[in-house]
Design a protein that fits this description.
There is one protein chain. Helix 4 runs antiparallel to helix 5 and helix 6 packs parallel to helix 7. The radius of gyration is 24 Å and the shape is elongated. Helix content is 40%, strand content 22%. The longest helix has 25 residues. The chain has 2 domains: 243 residues, 3-Layer(aba) Sandwich (Rossmann fold); 46 residues, no CATH class. With 324 residues, it is an alpha/beta fold. Helix 4 links the parallel strand 4 and strand 5. The strands form 3 sheets. A 6-stranded mixed β-sheet has the order 6-5-4-7-8-11, sandwiched between helices. The chain starts with a helix and ends with a helix. The chain contains 10 helices and 11 strands.
């Protein structure tokens, strides 16, 4: 059994310049090990696992307190009132679900990779893993996928059909990529602004992107989104974007002009690495200002393992015990 399990495990890792539907479907088996939120016992078929902050006429009795002006008289606890001769009100708390939205960036800058796969393929696999994990957890799944010219959104539904529709959308947008040159007007900031219109308050939003244009406008939109949503940033990157080395020269082009990079030049290597570190530092400073978490996954990583480190069921359960 162990011999046959190893090849199946290897097939789950993303490969190549384009994703294939079979690989996206297979991520379902790994997603069962992920728990995006703290586990709570379900009290009915339709109940959610997240207790809201709203207190009033809900479904679960929480406490009795002294009646206050404005309380619903239908919630008065007559037994306690008769015993104490002071009006008391019953308070309830309601459990609701938390819709999960996955925002996947499939613009041309994602069409790059030097190890295992392109960043766009990695983003598709991460989005697929999160999609299956959301459905396995009993949450409703919504999706937003965009390239440099357009975006498509899917409203949250609690159905495996919603996952399949999301995978089809990812597959379609991924196979439209043919160049890393960004020739469209759609920016991350504009996409986040549209997300504010689509995602409902109280939802969880996972943003899968290389975050290459997380500028002041995008940070502004994230600030407004974070006031009402639970946001997790998942940054995809390639090792060659952090450091470059080799011998000879590397020819690059933006579609209009061509330039030679002196890979053998030590000073050039240092400047390249410094520019990359400066960009990463700005991203982390922006995330820190916003109070957001960044999960970084490289094309050289196994995305399932990286997500398991953060959202593994055993880890989440042990964390929950420590919090209690």
């Amino acid at each position: 059994m162990s011999t046959s399990a190893k090849p199946a495990q290897l097939e789950l890792r993303p490969r190549g310049a384009y994703c294939d539907m079979a690989s996206l479907l297979r991520t379902r088996f790994v997603a069962r090990e992920l728990n995006l939120f703290a586990q709570r016992p379900a009290r009915s078929v339709q109940s959610g696992r997240l207790r809201t902050r709203f207190r009033g006429r809900g479904v679960d009795f929480e406490e009795v307190r002294v009646y206050q002006a404005g309380d619903d008289i239908r919630a008065i606890d007559w037994r306690v009132t008769a015993r104490t001769q002071i009006p008391h009100t019953k308070l309830y708390s309601e459990e609701r679900e938390r819709p999960v939205y996955i925002l996947c960036d499939l613009r041309p800058p994602m069409f790059f990779g030097s190890v295992n796969c392109f960043k766009s393929v990695l983003a598709c696999h991460i989005s697929a893993l999160l999609s299956w994990a959301a459905i396995e957890g009993g949450d409703r799944l919504g999706a937003l996928v965009f390239n440099q010219h357009e975006f498509r959104d899917q409203r949250p539904k609690r159905s495996k059909h919603s996952v399949l529709a999301n995978l089809q959308l990812l597959h379609s947008f991924n196979h439209q990529l043919n160049s890393p040159i960004n020739d469209g007007p759609l920016t991350l900031g504009q996409m986040l602004k549209d997300t504010r219109r689509i995602a409902k308050p109280g939802s969880a939003l996972f943003i899968v992107s290389d975050l290459h244009d997380l500028d002041a406008e995008a940070e502004k939109q994230l600030f407004h989104l974070h006031r009402h949503l639970d946001i997790t940033l998942i940054r995809t990157f390639d090792p060659m974007e952090q450091a470059i080395s080799g011998s000879g020269r590397l020819s690059i082009t933006n579609g209009q002009a061509r330039q030679q990079l002196p890979l053998h030049d030590k000073q050039f290597q240092q400047q390249y690495r410094a520019a990359s570190q400066q960009h990463e530092q700005k991203l982390h400073e922006a995330a820190q200002r916003l109070g957001l978490e960044i999960i970084e996954i490289s094309t050289s990583d196994d995305p399932a393992e990286r997500l398991r480190q953060r959202f593994g069921r055993q880890q989440r359960q042990s964390t929950s015990k420590r919090n209690r």
